[in-house]
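<discrete_fold_record>
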Amino acid sequence: MRHLLTLATLALAPVAAFAAEKAPAPAEAPAAPKRHPLRGVITSVLADKSAFMVKHEEIPGVMRAMTMMFKVDEPTLKIFKAGDAITGLMSRQPTGWVLEEVKPAAPAAKK
């Protein structure tokens, strides 16, 4: 019986090694979305959508200045109101455009 087990192990060893070589590589984790600095003014708060409409400045190399909707987290939704100047980091997520790390914007420097 012991010889039979040894023979079976020896016979299957090359098959196991071959299968390990041909196994597909584990899928890489998706890259985190690229975040871009944003500066703008909240034009409206869309509480039912957990979002702000923001009129933002141009984001060089990404998009022109425009007004668009950004999803925000619940605490951010409660802190800010229409008319507030803000900065934050925007990114494209599977759920839409998201704005994170939202802060009150410092007043623009006078020239």
Summary: Residues 88 and 101 are 5 Å apart (CA to CA).
